[in-house]
Write a structure and sequence with these properties.
Two copies of one chain form a homodimer.
Chain A: E1 2-6, E2 14-18, E3 24-27, H1 35-40, H2 42-57, E4 64-65, E5 71-72, E6 81-84, H3 88-98, E7 112-115, E8 127-129, E9 136-137, E10 140-146, H4 155-160, E11 162-169, E12 172-173, H5 177-182, E13 195-196, E14 200-201, E15 219-223, E16 226-229, H6 241-248, E17 259-261, H7 287-298, E18 311-316, E19 328-334
Parallel strand pairs in A: 6-17, 8-19
Antiparallel strand pairs in A: 1-2, 1-5, 1-14, 2-3, 3-4, 6-7, 9-12, 10-11, 10-17, 11-13, 15-16, 15-18, 18-19
Helix pairs in contact in A: 3-7
InterPro entries (chains A, B): FAA_hydro_N, Fumarylacetoacetase-like_C, Fumarylacetoacetase_C_sf
Domain Fumarylacetoacetase-like C-terminal (chains A, B): 87-331
Pfam family, one (chains A, B): FAA_hydrolase
Chain lengths: 337, 337
């Protein structure tokens, strides 16, 4: 089934079931008022949501037209957003540009950071920043929402806890990150509010593209209407979602509704760094990667970070070309207090 | 007023108003089912809670005996837990022990990290860890809960957004932190679930001890029944809460219910490092600080981190010797999956 959270003026929005083709929705708030409420009691509520989704497919329940811009992020606020960095190609490139090697441990010990989860931005609302010189960048990712995960869970338990899959735009302020990371406490200012796709789907909706741990489809990233990234999320993912989840649960339990991100999707090209889409490559899922490759190749980054007015669109289509999650589409806007 | 969340088998517990002397409570769930619900709509609900608190003081409403061990952390799960490190004495000591200077920026730019907030531990339940060699430590802190804070809020706006004050035990796994911080993404495994005091109070309950930004009272930390720390939370706090909140809100808004921590309370002694309580000093609010001072003075840390069975108690009393928030009291227990 496919679920969305419709904006209704409340902090958590209203739960809706969306048709497979994303054209229609039916109110699901009589089953659970919000997506978090459904996740809090998933075993009891999910079967009813699934039955409602089936009825919607058959037009057997009242429905209305689904507009992606009326959707909030599926969880408008969450109790946890922990974002991995599972595509080591990207990590390695960034370090290479800085002239430092990859520690060997990175191959076996995933990177993950604790993100802010109290104020996500709806997928069709602007990225707001006070200052363009902060180096505003998008990061296109796949994310999963999990059920309760016990402390010390192994990968099998982690896999069994995956309830929903969606897309993420993990906005990053590249200009603020180096000084922040140098302080040693991780990201804070460098990671403003993220956004998630209009629709979150249960893994069974993904068919063979979902292997239980990775999503094998290209992540479509367009910048100002032009192809920027077409990296396949199933390729070069060095840690799959169960590995990321188990890693996150090593010293504490994860509560239902925890969102785990893949990190910026990134594909190698014949073992080497990628190429822009326009040059026949898979492109990039963030501007920083393109800049790193430019720096490595020419000594200087030439692609600028986002300007006010720029627009990024992140989407994924099934093998028949149909949008699975709806699109994140965000313009960059100057924030005036 | 004083608020608590009573355990009732649900994820968020049930909101209660507690009497000033912590002996009685009255159910407040007819006003707002949970503390988060009250914070979501504070301007409307707080006056009713205050009226109920006043009635409770006069025994004008039904009440029952308040038992601290029946309380959950005031927010059993929260949308954000951002923990500062506002007592630079501690930061400086840790760095000195590592042989590195304090960057000048630390004096003007607060340290803060994004903590996990999905699964707090009740204040009278054990700290569970799978492995004693992880270097289990407590960190006794003061924390505030804020209302919505706009992106870019200044210190005055931040101060006006403080709704509740409480105590925190920010459990740390010292053995896991160095390798984790070396990865550059901040804390994750090193910071398992935190706990908060049984009771959260509005700032007006603190009288002159609260100056709008700092809480000027000793933080009482006992380890296995013996005095370990008596540091005054109002002394040597280099960034007050409004400064920490404004810092946290620099690039994104903070949602109502966000918890901001002070970091480990730490007092200098005559400009130098502190002394144990037994030697006439203010002692320490975590074991790591005592170990750092031992290392600086003798070349070797001798106080061990927590063993299974150890018990830490964190409390604060008003000038008349009455407990303000109730006590966090946690034994360390081996976690068996």
């Amino acid at each position: 089934m496919k679920l969305a959270t419709l904006k209704n003026g409340t902090r958590d929005g209203k739960l809706a079931v969306v048709s497979r083709d994303l054209t229609r929705f039916t109110d699901a708030s009589f089953l659970a008022p919000t997506l978090q409420a459904a996740l809090d009691d998933w075993h009891r509520i999910a079967p009813h949501l699934a039955a409602l989704a089936e009825s919607l497919e058959h037009d057997a329940v009242p429905f209305a037209r689904f507009h992606e811009h009326e959707a909030h992020s599926p969880l408008p606020r969450a109790y946890q957003w922990a974002d991995g960095s599972a595509y080591l190609n990207y990590v390695e490139l960034v370090r290479k540009a800085r002239g430092v090697d990859m520690p060997e441990s990175f191959a076996s010990n995933p990177l993950i950071y604790q993100g802010g989860s109290d104020s996500f931005v709806p997928p069709r609302e602007p990225i707001r920043a006070a200052d363009e010189t902060w180096g505003i960048d998008f990061e296109a990712e796949v994310a999963v929402v999990v059920d309760d995960v016990a402390m010390g869970a192994d990968c099998d338990e982690a896999r069994a806890a995956i309830r929903l899959v969606m897309l993420a735009n993990d906005v990053s302020l590249r200009g603020l990150i180096p000084a922040e990371l140098a302080k040693g406490f991780g990201f804070f200012h460098g990671k403003p509010s993220s956004s998630f796709s209009p629709v979150a789907v249960t893994p069974d909706e993904l068919g063979e593209a979902w292997d239980g741990g990775k999503l094998h489809l290209p992540l479509i990233v367009d910048l100002n209407g032009k192809p920027f990234g077409r990296a396949n999320a199933g390729i070069d993912m060095d840690f799959d979602f169960p590995a990321l989840i188990a890693h996150a649960a090593r010293t504490r339990p994860l509560a239902a509704g925890t969102i785990i991100g893949s990190g910026t999707v990134s594909n190698r090209l014949d073992g080497g760094p990628g190429k822009p889409v326009g040059q026949g490559g898979a492109g990039y899922s963030c501007i920083a990667e393109q800049r790193v490759i430019e720096t490595l190749e020419t000594g200087k980054a030439k692609t600028p970070f986002l300007h006010f007015g720029d627009k990024v669109r992140i989407e994924m289509k099934d093998t028949d070309g149909r949008s699975i999650f709806g699109a994140i589409e965000q313009a960059v806007e100057k924030y005036e207090k």
